[in-house]
Protein 1
Amino acid sequence: MLAIISNVLRGTASRNGARVVVSARTYADFTPQASFDIKKCDVHKLEEGPPLQAVLTREEGLQYYRTMQTMRRMELKSDQLYKQKIIRGFCHLYDGQEACAVGIEAGINLTDHLITAYRAHGYTLTRGGTVREIMAELTGRRGGIAKGKGGSMHMYTKHFYGGNGIVGAQVPLGAGVALACKYLGKNELCVCLYGDGAANQGQIFETYNMASLWKLPCIFICENNKYGMGTSVERAAASTDYFKRGDFIPGLRVDGMDVLCVREATKFAAEHCRSGKGPILMELQTYRYHGHSMSDPGISYRTREEIQEVRSKSDPISMLKDRMLSNNMASVEELKEIDVEVRKEIEDAAQFATTDPEPPLDDLLRGTNPWTKLKSVS
Amino acid sequence: MFYIRVTVRDALNQAMDEELERDERVFLLGEEVAQYDGAYKVSRGLWKKYGDKRIIDTPITEMGFAGIAVGAAMAGLRPICEFMTFNFSMQAIDQVINSAAKTYYMSAGRQSVPIVFRGPNGASAGVAAQHSQCFAAWYGHCPGLKVVSPWSAEDARGLLKSAIRDDNPVVFLENELMYGVPFEMSEESQSKDFLIPIGKAKIERQGNHITVVSHSRMVSLCLDAAAVLAKEGIECEVINMRTIRPLDAEAIETSVMKTNHLITVEGGWPQFGVGGEILARIMEGPAFNYLDAPAVRVTGVDIPMPYAKILEDNSVPQIKDIIFSVKKTLNA
């Protein structure tokens, strides 16, 4: 009975366009927090791993849900705009991997540092970028987070060092940021991400060596989405135990589709770094629904069935949603409302991204380049 | 007038020492820079004075440690990254160009990279092909980098200090054969805030008949050639570029408009090189109309550096080559 009344009231509220506090069902009815079993992490050179249970509060759950949904819709919108040729060049989408970005951010502070490769839109968001700025950067407008100069792979915010186009190059950079953290003594750390494809790069092993020698506060994270472009991990790596590849660096293998698992592992890793023990490595087992980039349909090297199976059984957003609903931590309507708000935010951002003007040409004429004296203006 | 004699090596050492003292964000990393006192002893005494935190010995992993240095610069430190020679910078060139040079632009000014990459560049003596390449043209090609090539001890001191204080990535090309060469330095240049601006050339010798533009060790040869030519009544204006990028085209143009003749002298290979750039700039600017003869580049020979002394000696410009080019240009 109570449920029916609340639905009617809510219906009225939306028809009137007003936001009415539905007093028929108060927040006191929801479970404020619950404890969930999470998958055990495989460990390498560690006595113990992260806890097997995670406590999720209602606020946290709603926030993770909103962020992951925003990320998902933002990426899907970008797919649309790309197909309409409003976004051009490289566009590497993150849908499917949301639990990684959101879980990691939940395990660290905004004052910590993070660097990743080119599949970076999700991290730009969690590190403080707005959907508007991100999308306007993808469409190359002056309102973009890099004023249109960077594009998909070169977005930056405070304590977020991109967005890097050269596979593996960001790993030494991340260790350098960690060196600065240790040097400046502010108890900050650096999360340094790379993919399963990059994991075979020599410079990463050079970085493992120095980070370990100098005990840098660096969390190396391998986002293993099973494919480096079109090459499956089995065909690229002699050892696919990416969490062990750090050799002398302790490692964890984590379920990257479960935001709570990622969060607990990140907290565990952060504790390790902050206590001065040096670097640690996490392998997040995750999956991307899209191909490597927008120019890759993503089905020549994997089956549609495989993609569908992951979507139906392991989708990070669905997993969180199910957990919250089955534990009475949120209502279906509430989550739907968040969906509506997210959709609106994305629409607004897309609108901005398609109407904002492009950067001015004068930007090109700066500098003492003599060539510009000869450049035709018409 | 108070002068002291200081070698280029000591000038570099003092500059680094003073900058390390002045700003605690400055630190030095590279192979053998700490406990070995530097492969060429340029960082002698620094580790003893500043310790492990500020003077860091790295493993032989250029790509890794150059990347680490760039990352540290992004996060607020001011690293000096030493390449034992710039030949080894090729292993790390992606970090220098894609991570350091381009980032300020790609981030629309949000992310700066205040790093100095320094080390010996160009030919040495008997070190053969893989250890003798000049990288002035390669790095000079790239927007986002400043590229500096000091000649004298004063250059070394003032330019290195400027490079360390500059918020841009600076490639600082030293020369191994110049390390031990002493120069007289004025009292003024001993000041802790003695800075030479990056991007400004210096006229080392005034002259009216021909402009001779050079950088690094070749400046010595140009001055020697000028001394010989003076005896024959030919007065060369020798310009020490000091900076490769941004190139001080104005200084060269002003000189050419006075002398009407130009040669450039460099140790690097001829094709797509520093001399080629200077000649192109002259053609694009006001000085072209003042040339009485085509400008000429004197460069290293277009081959991988051979080992045998006679071959090596003849693979880089010699004083006689400079004299020959001057006379040919002047039609003397």
Protein 2
Amino acid sequence: MMETAAVTLKGVEQYRAHFRLGPIDLNIDEGYVTAIVGPNGSGKSSTFRLLLDLAKPDAGQMSVLGYSVGQGDDREWKRQIGYLAEESDFLDDSIRGSEKAAFVRKWYPEWDVNLYQELLRKFEVDDAIKLGKMSKGMRRKFEMALVIAQKPKLLLLDEPSSGLDPIAWRAMIDILHRYMEPGDRTILMASHIIDEVRRLADFIVFMARGQILGKYEKDELFERWHVLYVPAANDSDRSKLLAMPGVIDAELAGIGMYRVVTEDAPQTEEALRAAQFGIGSRQAMQLDEILQVLMQRGVYA
Amino acid sequence: MWLPIHLNESSAEPMYHQIEVQLRALIVSGQLTEGTLLPSIREMAQMLGCSVITVRRVYQDLETEGLLRTRQGTGTFVASVQKEDLGRQRTASVIEAVEAAVDAGMRVQLTRQEMEQIMARVLDERWKES
């Protein structure tokens, strides 16, 4: 199948007095959910702002839905993007939800009023309330309903679940899966909620200190990044383990047992069998553990 | 639609393979009958907590085997399985499971004799039960 990119970044850089972003090279495939995972301050929100032409890069090119960012009339492509910013806009505090919706629908020809009403019901949001008077969670749910009712081809979600309680969170997961159902839509989200990424993402991009550390297919990531416990006797075994394909780290984890971190479990296991090592047990690594290993290893992608 | 498919994320078997084996077994055993509409790729991914890439691969593999068919715009259905195919498929899934068991034995370095003993013992136990 031909994959088309919904978003591409080529050599994108942005310099600030206290922060340098990039160079970033990244393709986001159409039809999939891609989650950018990284600690606070890694450049996720800055990247979103660049993609929306809300800030200018100092180098590089970007395209969104086939349009070059920063060139010509941006109304055409921005109509096809739903953007949920990390922070609510305080300038909206004094207007009611329904007034905000009436304003937004003018700009989005695909606006679906029935979907909007359905989402408000599902999220239990009353849009007659002034936005500044809504609780943080309710405002988040309102904003989510607003961007999805635009029926965008591309959804940019910056920490979508911040402020949501567990019930609203589950509703959000379900709504986002339903949004993806037509198959030609794309979600690019920034998140540090591990469970959210596990439930939603097809691809995971790791980011730290303004750099992309790697892009992985989610299931492959969890299939390959394992911790293996290997019975082994001494230091010469350790160097043997470290030399095996996929092995990132091997340290003594008790008497005669090495804890081996691998980014390619099938290959490492094969090498272990070939070298007559046994495998005591294996464990898939969690997202935060993988991020930590990638960050320790530094920038390589 | 809920399907009894269970994934073990610490298994050495890739996720698509685990799903494929179990879905195939559901079809071959007749638990999913001809014409049954399966969940969409996105629904299945949500249900199993895996990516759509994995589910698409499973659907495509089982389609190639003739167990599923996809109609554009309507979805993926369980295909009609021929009697002789059914027989072949039935043994194929068992052979695969036995192979996995043998692999597990080799991983902990059992001898061939030990494995034969285990196999005989399990067979004896299960047959007594049923």
